[in-house]
Amino acid sequence: MRCTSTEQANPTTKADLLRSPLPTPHWGAQTNSAFTVRAVVTVNATPTAVLDSLLDTSKYSAWNNFVPKIDLPTSSSRRLGADVLFTEHVDMFGQGKPSGLVKLKLLMTTLQEKDEYNGSKSYEVVWLGKAYPDWALRSERVHAISCDNQGITTYEVWETFSGPLALLVRLFVGGTLVKRFKQWNEELRDYTEARSHT
């Protein structure tokens, strides 16, 4: 069964903080105060539509109150691609307002497309944190977009943090990150579904 915008179940969202961190493609299994923030949502749209919403940074201000803006190295394209170093403007209050913005550098290392057994596409996008030296804080964010055999599109994002500063991140903003990741998923879902059904 193919994932389409008409075969979806009611969307659900789950977000949590995992003290047993999930491995990531670049850093693998991490220790040293490591933890993972994860959010999962079902989306009433195709995996390709979800991917398009994720990569088209020109529309972030229209839906993304956690990261309302992304700066790319060139103004010729507003779409993220592999091997692109970019800056995300983060609002930890989730209001999309400049007063709460923090700038973080990330490197998009992976954009992988896979053919699923049900004829649909699945995707993995990986962002590697570059805001701090690796010895101080390592972070890697994985976006997994897939379609199951019931025709349900799932968008899962998780970020694993490790290194000496990871403990401070968890203590001071771990709970906030769980809320913001959940918000990111729900806003991406709502934006993608509205775009897919117009």
Question: Can you describe what's shown?
Answer:
- By secondary structure, the chain is an alpha+beta fold.
- Helices cover 22% and strands 35% of the residues.
- The longest helix is centred in the C-terminal third of the chain and has 31 residues, at 166-196.
- Strand 6 and strand 7 (138-147) form a beta hairpin.
- It has helices at 47-55, 60-63, 166-196, and strands spanning 13-18, 35-43, 69-71, 84-91, 101-115, 121-129, 138-147, 153-162.
- The protein has an eight-stranded antiparallel beta sheet with strand order 1-2-8-7-6-5-4-3, covered by helices on one side.
- The protein contains three helices and eight strands.
- The radius of gyration is 16 Å and the shape is globular.
How many strands appear in the DSSP assignment? Answer: 8
How many helical stretches? Answer: 3
| Average pLDDT reading | 89
Pick out the low-confidence regions: none
* Helix and strand sequence: EEHHEEEEEEH
Straight-line distance between termini: 23 Å
- As a whole number of angstroms, the C-alpha radius of gyration is 16 Å
How much of the sequence lies in strands comes to 35-45%
Helix/strand-derived category reads alpha+beta
Compose a concise summary of this entry.
The chain has 198 residues and is α+β, with helices and mostly antiparallel strands.
